[in-house]
Write a structure and sequence with these properties.
The protein is of the alpha/beta class. The chain has three domains: 109 residues, Rossmann fold; 127 residues, Heat Shock Protein 90 (2-Layer Sandwich), CATH 3.30.565.10; 71 residues, no CATH class. It has eleven helices and twelve strands. Strands 2-1-3-4-5 form a five-stranded parallel sheet, with helices on both faces. The longest helix has 22 residues. The two termini are 33 Å apart.
Length: 327
């Protein structure tokens, strides 16, 4: 490929449309990978540009984009749809799509949008929304998906554990109580702020008596789900009405590691050290004139111990040569 060529992932279930668009783009020296479903798209290699139809069989094109973002991939994205939907358009742009195009697609405009230089960095993913069928499996999958979002946003491990555990309780409440006939859906939303993550679990089921629920945590200790949610989150708010569904909103304080003038720095929420953080910590611990106390998780303490002790000496072996590494 030339320096100006792009790797384009084209997700389109209409095979004739997909191959026509791919041929046009390949004639312009771009590398094009075709996927005919969302599941197939997620098995492809990372791309520079994602062009996806919304209306796919199985997961939608917007679900594909959201999943790629959760993996840490940030392709420049163009969304195509045969139906004009304000909700889909809003969601596409919220997920950072460059544009939302209606079918039939104007080819010249599509090429121009694909090949134009990005004008800004990809939009950070600061909110999250997924809808599931209310089921036992969702009680496991929902928290896992939310933890992946929180991890990508830099939320620390203990906060992630609290968030996932409380969300599992809310999802189990929906599965067990919202839909007596076992048929219904539940939506998990999250919004990341500078110091907190707000999670909302919402269903359209039979609802509950919020006055009675409000007394439950005090009376039940930790024997009910809402009591456990209240113990894990900084704040829990329940909105519900008979036959109008329930929304459980939970607020979690999040941790951001930073160095300041304090004598003690809490790094216990970090999973790993960046090179800059490792240099700063080792330099601080190696400076006897300016001692600083740190709080580490056991795993990080092992890493710091190894960094302070330095590399192990190489054993003499005439057949082994140590690689020359830069500073």
């Amino acid at each position: 490929m030339s320096e100006s060529s792009l790797h384009i992932l084209l997700v389109e279930d209409d095979r004739s449309v997909a191959h026509t668009l791919a041929a046009i783009l390949r004639d312009r020296s771009h590398q094009v990978t075709i996927a005919h479903s969302g599941e197939e798209a997620l098995r492809c290699q990372p791309c520079d540009v994602l062009v996806t139809d919304v209306g796919l069989s199985g997961m939608s094109g917007l679900d594909v984009l959201e999943e790629l973002l959760l993996r840490g991939e940030t392709p420049r994205t163009l969304v195509i749809s045969g139906e004009k939907s304000v909700e889909n358009c809003r969601r596409a742009l919220h997920l950072g799509a460059v544009d939302f195009l209606s079918k039939p697609v104007n080819i010249d405009r599509l090429i121009r949008l694909i090949e134009q230089e990005p004008t800004k960095e990809p939009q950070a993913l600061s909110s999250y929304k997924r809808t599931y069928r209310a089921s036992r499996a969702t009680c496991d999958r929902g928290p896992r998906d939310l933890v992946a979002f929180a991890l990508r946003c830099g939320v620390g491990p203990s906060a992630r554990a609290r968030i996932a555990t409380a969300t599992a309780e809310a999802l189990e409440n929906t599965w067990r109580h919202a839909y007596p006939d076992g048929q219904g859906s539940v939506t998990v939303e999250a919004d990341l702020g500078t110091s907190e993550l707000v999670v909302r679990v919402r269903d359209g089921g039979r609802g509950m008596d919020t006055v009675a629920v409000g007394r439950t945590p005090v009376q039940a200790g930790h024997s009910c789900g809402l009591a456990r949610m209240s113990a894990l989150a900084e704040d829990v708010l329940v909105r519900s009405g008979l036959n109008t569904g329930t929304q459980i909103e939970m607020r979690f304080t999040i941790f951001t590691a930073c160095f300041d003038e304090n004598a003690q720095t809490d790094l216990s929420e970090l999973d790993w050290f960046s090179p800059q953080m490792a240099r700063t910590v080792v330099k601080s611990l190696d400076d006897p004139e300016h001692p600083r106390a740190f709080q580490f998780s056991p795993a990080l303490a092992v890493s710091i111990g190894r960094l302070l002790s330095g590399p192990r000496p190489l054993q003499a072996n005439p057949t082994t040569h140590a690689p020359e590494l830069g500073a």
